[in-house]
Amino acid sequence: MLDRVANRLLPLQHRPFHYALAHLGHHNIDSGHGRGAQARGLKRGRGGKVREPYAAPPGSAPGARTKKPPPRPRRLRARAKARAGRLANGLTYYVRENREPRDRAELRLVVDAGSVLEDDDQRGLAHLLEHMAFNGTEAFPEQELVRYLESTGMQFGPDVNAYTSFDETVYMLQVPTDSADTFETGLEVLREWAGSVTITPEEVAKEKGVVLEELRLGRGAGGRVRDVQFPVIFQGSRYAERLPIGDEETLEAATAERLRDFYDDYYRPDLMAVVVVGDVDADRVVGMIEDQFGDLDPPADAPPRPSFSVPGHDETLVVIATDPELPQGQVQVLLKREPETTRTEADYRRTVKVGLFNAMLNARLGELRQSADPPFAFAGASLGGGLRTVDFASFFAVAPGAGALRALDALLTEAERVRRFGFTEGELERAKAEVLNGLDRALAERDQTPSRAYASALVDYDLEGAPALGVDDRDRLTRGYLPGVTLDEVTALASELLEEENRVVALALPETEGGAAPTEAEVRATLAAVEAADLAPYDDAVAAGPLVPTPPSPGRVVEADDLGNGVTRWTLSNGVRVLLKPTDFQNDEVLISATSPGGTSLFSLDTYRATQFAAAVVGSSGAGAFSAPELQKKLAGQTVSVLPTLSEREEGIRGQASPDDLDTALQLVYLTMTAPRRDEDAFGSTLGQIRTFLDNAAATPQKAFSDTLSVTLTGDNPRRQPLTLAALDAADLDASVAAVRERFADADDFTFSLVGAFEPSEVQPLVETWLGGLPTLPRTDVPQDVLVDRPDGVVRKTVYRGVEPQARVQVVFHGPLDAYSDEAEAELDALAQVLETTLRETLREDLGGTYSVRVQGGADREPRPEYTVSLGFGADPARVDELVDAVFADIAALKADGPEDRLVQNVREGARREQQTALRQNGYWLSVLGQVARYGLPVDEVLARPALLEAATEATVQEAARRYLDTDRYVQVVLLPETLGDGGATDE
User: Fold this and answer.
1) Spatial separation of the C-alpha atoms in residues 935 and 877, rounded to whole Å
2) Rounded Cα–Cα distance for residues 27 and 622 (Å)
3) Is the distance from CB of 357 to CB of 493 less than 8 angstroms?
4) Residue 559 and residue 571: Cα distance in Å, rounded?
5) What's residue 464's pLDDT?
6) Rounded to an integer, what distance in angstroms lies between the CA atom of residue 501 and that of residue 315?
7) Are 965 and 869 in contact, with CB atoms under 8 Å apart?
C-alpha cells in the first residue's frame, strides 16, 4: 500500500516540506462531515472569512432605514457530468462515464478517517488497518483478495493500492469493464473493505512486521530531520504527533481489538464515499452501488468525527536540524494561515490571481537558478497548499549546506523585490499567455482525459466540498476573469509571503566535519537584512527576433514507405529518415524523438571525462541567439520542449509540442543540431546544481550501497565510476559544446520519429524545411564496445554505513547470451514477474520481513548479448541472513518444481491487459518506433513482443529459472548499519 507520508513526507532529503504537504491532498475545508474547524490564532484567508448575518446598526430606532445588505456572493455552479447521491445509510457515491482508457474503470473507497483520529495507544493503527484490508475480508480470506485482483491482469501497486493520510484513507482499484463479473467483483471488494474486513490476531501479527519494515524504510536522515522540525512547524497541534506511519512502540503493542475499535468507530457509511469513473453505464453502476452498499448499517453509538486545528503564533519560529547523512541542504519558509475555500465566483477570481502570482515569482526564481553561480539548485514559492485545517504560503530551496543563508536571502529578496516594485507588464502578459495556453490544451484534451484524473478530482471534491468544476467551467470562469486581473492586485499578494506572524523558517543541513550550521541569530539577521536591503527593480530582459533568422534551403521527401500499422517512413533528400505515426489518442500532443549511432563510446577517455555533462549543459543554454531565460520568455504561451541527448552508444533528440507549436519545436531541433550555444552562465548553473546534489551525498548509506553495487558489476571500468565532485572539476565548457557539435554534425544517420495529433500532409513542409535542411557529412559512425566486464563466479560484499537499524539487499544474476532475441527478453520478463510475486508472498506476507520486493529482468542487445535478473528488498539487519536464505530457497523450488499455474496466468493476463491500454498511448508508440529506428525491425515484430509473454507457461518459466538464475554466478551486496562493522565495505 502506498502510504503518502512514508513516500511523500518522510524522505525530506529528497522532497521539500512544501512539496510533501502539497501532496497530502489540500484537505482544507469543512465538507459536511464535521471537518474544517477554525485554526485559532491564524489569519483568516479570503475563503476563511465568516459572514455575519446582516443586522441594523446598534442604536437604530425601530423601523429606521438601514443600509441595504451587500449582495450575496455568487456561488460557483459546476456543470459536472458525474452522478452523485447519498444512500439512506449516509454513504455518498459519485459515478462518471468516461471512455479513456477503454474497457477500464477506476474505483475508489474514500474513508474520512486518518491518523489524526487515533487515540494515544492507536498511533499508526489507521495505516495498519489499511494494510489489513488487503489481508482478508469475509468474502476474500487472507491473500485471496490480492490474488483475485492479480488474476484479472491488475498489478499490485499500479492498479491495486491505498494510502493513509492524516485525515483520510483512500482505497484505489483499476478494474477491467469488458467483463461484467470482474467489474462487479471490483465493487464487491470496495464493499468488503467498507464493512467486512477480518482482523484476526494471526494476520495482525504478520502484518505488523510489514508495517514496521515500512517505518524502518522511512527512517534515516529524513526521519530524524522530521523529528526535529515537525514539533515546531505543527506546534501545539495533534498533527505533530499523529504521523500516519505511527511509532514503533505502539505498533509492536498493537492488538486486533484496538484495530477493530478504530474500524468500528470510523469505517461507517456517513464517513464513506464510493467513486466510480470509467467505461461504464452510470445508471447500472448506481443500481449496483445501492444494492451492494445499502445494507451497511451506521453504528448507533459512533463517536463524532472531530477536527483538529493548528494554532497560530505571533512571532517567527526558527528550527535548524542537522544530520550527517543528509545529502544537501534544504531551506523552507512556511507561513501558516487558515484554509481558503473556492466556493464563490469571487473565490475563483482569487485563485486566478494566485496562479498568476505563483507563475511569475517562480519564473524569477528559475532565472536565479540559471545564473552562473546559482544560490540554489532548485527553488519554488507558492501561495496555498497544506492540510485540512491549515494552509501554507511557502518558499523552499535545495542548496549546498554551506549556502543555506545565501539561499534563504535569495528567496526572500525576490519576494521583497516584488513587494516594493511589483511585477512588470511583460511578466503579467507572459503569465496570462501561459494560462490561456493551458486552457486551450485542457479544452483540446477534455475528451481524452484519463479516468484516473477524474477519480482523483471526485475524491478531492468529497473531502473538500468545493464544486468539482469541469474543463468547460474552468475555461468559462478563467477567460472571464483573466483580462481584468491587474498588475497591482497580483503584486499585492507578495505581502502574504513576508509576514512575520505564523511564520516558520526551517533549515535542514548536512552535518559535516569542520562545518558549522547557521545559528538562529544568523537566520534572524538574514530576515532583517532582507527587509532593510537596498534593492533595484527587476530587469525584465527580453530578446527580440526570430529563432532562426535565415531558414535553411528545404530538402524534400524522396521516398515514402508504408511500414504498416499506420506507420510511414519518409526518406529525405539529405538522407534523414522520419517515422510518422498519426494518432487520435491525445488531441494536443506530438512527441518527437531522434536517434543516431555513435555516442560517447567514440570519445577518448579524456574527452569523455571533459564532456560527461555536455548534453545537460547545451540543453540548458537556450537556442540560437536566445539564452535559456530569454528563450523561456519568447516561448511563453507555447507548448514546446526540445532537448539533446548523448549516451554511450547514441546521440539523439527528445521533445514534445502542441500541434500548433510543432513548427517552433522543429526550429529548436534545427538549432540544437546546427548551432549549440556556448553559454558560461548555463555551464556554471548546470555544474552548480549537480554540485549541490553531490554536496554530502557520499555520506549517505544509499549512495555507498549503490556505488558499491555499480562498481562491483562493472569491474572498475573508468566510464562506469560513480559520480563525484572531482568529476565536475574535469568538465570543460568548450569541449562540451564541441562534443555536441561533432556528434550532431552529420544528419544522414539520424532517424526521427513523430507520434501524435498531426496530418502527414500538414507537417511535410515543416519536416522538409527543418529536418531536410540539416547538414550531412561523408562519414559512418559505429558505436564502440567500451569493454565493461562483469565479474565471474559469486561475489558478495557487505557495506557498513548508516546509523539507523536498516538493511538493504541486492542480488544480481547476470551472464552472456548466445544471441539476443525477443524470446529471451520475454522469458526474462515473465521470470521476473513470477519471482517477484513469489518472493513478495514469502518475504512479506508469510514472514513479515520486508515492505516490498522488486525483481527486474532483461536482456541487452548491444554491445554484447547479456542478461540480468536483479532482486532487492529492505529488512531488519538481524533478519538479513534468514530472508536471503528464503530467497534462495524459493529460487531452488522454482527450478525444481516450477511456478504455480496462477502466477503464470497472471503474467499472461497482465500482458494482454497492458497491451490493450498501451496501444492507445503516444509514449508506447514512440518506444516502438525507437526500436524500428535503432535496429531496423519491422513494426509488426516489435508489436508482437507482448504476445510472447502471453505464451508463457509453467514449463517456460521453470526453464528460464534454470537458465538465468545461476547460483554459481551472481553479485550480492548487503547494506548494514555501521555499528555492525567498521564503516567501510568487506568482500566475502
Assistant:
1) 45
2) 39
3) yes
4) 5
5) 84
6) 5
7) yes
Residue 465 has pLDDT above 90, yes or no: no
Q: At what angle do helices 144-151 and 180-195 cross, to 10 degrees?
A: 160
CA proximity to 129, closest of 204, 195, 188, 187: 204
DSSP 184-197: HHHHHHHHHHHH-B
Matching residue, cell 478530482: 457
At 850, the amino acid letter reads T
Cα–Cα distances in angstroms (integers) from residue 630 to residues 208, 360, 367, 404, in the given order: 55, 14, 10, 28
Half-sphere exposure of 711 (CA within 13 A, CB side): 14
Angle between the N-to-C axes of helices 954-964 and 822-839, in degrees from 0 to 180, rounded to the nearest 10? 90
530, 494 contact by CB (below 8 A): no
Question: 62: buried, middle or exposed (CB in 10 Å: 19+, 13-18, 0-12)?
Answer: exposed
Q: Which residue has the higher pLDDT, 513 or 675?
A: 675
Cβ neighbors of 925 (< 8 A, separation 6 or more) are 581, 583, 755
* Closest to 876 in 3D by CA, of 987, 982, 988, 976: 976
Local structure of residue 393 (DSSP, 8 states):
E
3-state secondary structure 541-605: CCCCCCCCCCCCCCCCEEEEEEEECCEEEEEECCCCEEEEEECCCCCCCEEEEEEEECHHHHCCH
pLDDT greater than 70 at residue 31:
no
| Sequence-separated (6 or more) residues with CB below 8 Å from residue 889 | none
> Do 830 and 907 meet the contact criterion of CB atoms below 8 Å apart?
yes
Of 388, 439, 423, 485, nearest to 658 by C-alpha is 439
207 within 8 A of 848, measured Cβ to Cβ: yes
Contacts of 621 (CB under 8 A, 6+ apart): 627, 628, 676, 677, 678, 679, 682, 683
Burial tier of 890 (Cβ tally within 10 Å: 0-12, 13-18, 19+):
middle
Instruction: Please measure the distance between the N-terminal and C-terminal CA atoms of the chain and give it in whole angstroms.
Output: 35
Residue type, 873: F
Mean pLDDT computed over 924-942: 97
Could you read off the pLDDT of 221-235 as tens digits, one per residue?
999 999 999 999 999
Instruction: For the chain, give the number of residues.
Output: 988
Let me know: does 171 contact 109? Beta carbons within 8 Å: yes
CA distances from 160 to 92, 190, 754 (A): 22, 12, 33
Tell me the H-state helices in 330-403: 345-369
pLDDT tens for 811-866 read: 999 999 999 999 999 999 999 999 999 999 999 999 999 999 999 999 999 999 99
Q: How many helices (H) and strands (E) does the chain have?
A: 33, 24
Quick one: cell of 722? 560513480
User: pLDDT tens digits, residue range 34-65?
Assistant: 333 333 345 544 333 222 222 222 333 333 33
207: phi then psi, degrees, rounded to nearest 5: -75, -25
- What's the pLDDT score for residue 983? 61
- Reading the block at residue 534, the C-alpha cell is 537596498
Residue owning grid cell 456572493: 73
Nine cell digits for residue 704: 555507498
Looking at every residue in the chain, the average pLDDT score rounds to 90
Q: What cell was used for 799?
A: 557495506
Closest CA to 146 of 191, 107, 207, 189: 189
Check pLDDT > 90 for residue 780.
yes
CA–CA distance, 504 with 281 (Å, rounded to integer)? 50
Torsion angle of alpha carbons 777, 782, 783, 784, nearest 10°? -130
Q: What is the DSSP letter of 9?
A: I
Nearest 5°: the CA angle 526, 528, 532 is 115
Look at residues 243, 220, 231 and name the one whose alpha carbon lies nearest to residue 166.
Answer: 243
Helices (H), 803-900: 822-839, 880-897
Pairing of strands 853-860, 866-875: antiparallel
For residue 845, give the C-alpha cell.
Answer: 506476507
